[in-house]
Design a protein that fits this description.
InterPro entries: 4-carb_acid_sugar_kinase_N, 4-carb_acid_sugar_kinase_N_sf, NBD_C, NBD_C_sf, OtnK
Number of strands: 18
Number of helices: 13
Low-confidence stretches: none
CATH architecture of the largest domain: 3-Layer(aba) Sandwich
Shape: globular
Structural class: alpha/beta
Strand content: 15-25%
CATH class of the largest domain: Alpha Beta
Organism: Nonomuraea jabiensis
CATH topology of the largest domain: Rossmann fold
CATH superfamily of the largest domain: Putative sugar-binding, N-terminal domain
Largest sheet: 15 strands, mixed
Family: Belongs to the four-carbon acid sugar kinase family.
Radius of gyration: 20 Å
Helix content: 25-40%
Function: Catalyzes the ATP-dependent phosphorylation of 3-oxo-tetronate to 3-oxo-tetronate 4-phosphate.
Bound molecules: adenosine-5'-triphosphate, the ligand O=C(O)[C@@H](O)C(=O)CO
Mean pLDDT: 95
Strand order of the largest sheet: 9-10-5-11-4-1-3-2-16-17-18-15-12-14-13
Enzyme class: transferase
């Protein structure tokens, strides 16, 4: 039978986050990296997540890749599509949330969809259409300084309104509080008025359950992992194969607040090498260091993560490619456990490793599941969203049994 839910995620850590949420809901979940080809086999599963690296590429390319995934899923009988973007709504005025959502809803003939980035378990909530990170508005959080998608406006109706020609409106918390019937009625009324996007307030998991029930009929649903996890439940046993032991490496390219703290702590426990964008021979130097360090100590961290005042503007791509080259060399040197911080960084690393799919395993921390790659040899990957995870996650991940 076809999976009942297909999910297209706009970055690789977003893909792992939503896969973890679906797995937690008891769904047997398969994760695929990149646009699957005609010959890609969809294993027997309840949900399939296709993780793309489309968050920060030109909008037309993001649209084309997302539509290709939608077609692939439809051809395999998957009827309901979830578009997963970041719980901090990472995007710019050029997109890519608006253009991709426009294309997916158009292709599905969906008059309206919900927009629900709330992830209460990570303290991302939406009230009166304003996105909060903990007790701060999005625009006052560290996301204001994101290297690729600085978020300076917390009003999601306004933010999305700049990315789409379609109408955007709010379903406010006072409606959500009245339950699924009230939200469904509000969605129907908005669709009748020609609104394409209903931004839904949500403060906690109860609100997500209400929105999930009210939007169950929609062919395309959009949001972060929280709403996806509320859509369906099942009761499948989730086996977790043992993680491979042996050399391990941490690669950190995220500059988000949680990652900076994790990297600072990991530097005290792991042999560490910092990539500095302006240096000549940046990659060769890192590879030489890696080779010696892995041979001697069996574990290492290479990072470019830096606070705003120490970053190199315009160096994002260069640093992603450098970390990807380090990852590929580490795998050749026998590393079997690869921990990556940052979605764009994870995309570059996974692509360099040639990984196309993975079994979703137990979570090392909330929203951060272990992945066992399909392919030979199997690698254990931990792809950590920039702002997820406890401070010692990068260190303990290399030691986990
Ligand atoms: N020192 C630096 N100077 C400038 N850019 C950097 C630096 N270090 C990393 N970057 C870039 O910043 C970007 C960080 O994005 P990435 O998606 O990896 O992390 P994130 O946004 O924190 O994670 P997530 O998307 O999972 O929340 C990458 O493109 C990375 O190459
Ligand atoms: O939703 C989130 O916060 C994460 O899954 C994410 O998308 C990080 O890139």
């Amino acid at each position: 039978m076809s999976p009942s839910l297909g999910c297209v995620a706009d970055d690789y850590t977003g893909g792992t986050d939503v896969a973890a949420a679906l797995r937690r809901s008891g769904l047997r979940t398969v994760l695929i990296f990149g646009v699957p080809g005609p010959a890609t086999v969809l294993p027997d599963s309840d949900a399939v997540v296709v993780a793309l690296k489309t968050r920060s590429i030109p909008a037309e390319e993001a649209v084309a890749a997302s539509l290709a995934v939608q077609r692939w899923l439809r051809e395999r009988g998957v009827r309901r599509l979830y578009f997963k973007y970041c719980s901090t709504f990472d995007s710019t005025d050029q997109g890519n949330i608006g253009p991709v959502a426009d294309a997916l809803t158009e292709a599905a003939g969906a008059g309206l969809t919900v927009v629900c980035p709330a992830a209460p378990e990570h303290r991302r909530t939406v009230y009166q259409g304003h996105l909060f990170v903990g007790d701060r508005l999005l625009s006052e959080s560290s996301m204001r300084h994101h290297p690729l998608t600085p978020m300076t406006d917390p009003d999601l109706v306004r933010v999305l309104g700049r990315q789409t020609p379609h109408r955007v409106a709010l379903v406010a918390h006072e409606t959500v509080r009245r339950g699924a019937g009230a939200v469904r009625a509000a969605l129907d009324a908005l669709r009748f008025q020609g609104v394409r996007y209903a931004v839904t307030d949500a403060l906690d998991d109860r609100d997500l359950d209400v929105i999930a029930r009210a939007s169950a009929h929609l062919p395309v649903i959009t949001g972060a992992a929280g709403l996806a996890g509320a859509l369906e439940t099942a009761r499948h046993e989730q086996a977790m194969p043992a993680l491979p032991t042996g050399p391990g490496i941490v690669l950190a390219g995220s500059c988000s607040a949680a990652t900076l703290e994790q990297v600072a702590l990991a530097r005290r426990h792991l042999p560490s090498h910092r990539l500095r964008a302006g240096r000549d021979g940046l990659v060769e130097e890192a590879l030489g260091w890696l080779e010696a360090t892995l041979a001697e100590q069996g574990r290492a961290m290479v990072y470019s993560s830096a606070p705003p005042e120490e970053r190199s503007p315009g160096a994002a791509g260069l640093l992603e490619r450098a970390l990807a080259a380090v990852a590929a060399r580490a795998a050749r040197l026998g590393a079997r456990r690869i921990v990556v911080a940052g979605g764009e960084t994870s995309g570059a690393v996974v692509n360099a490793l040639g990984v196309t799919g993975a079994v979703v395993g137990a979570e090392a921390d909330r929203g951060v599941p272990w992945l066992l790659t399909t392919g030979d040899p199997s690698l254990a990957l931990l792809l950590k969203s920039g702002n997820f995870g406890r401070p010692d996650l990068l260190v303990t991940a290399l030691e986990a049994p």
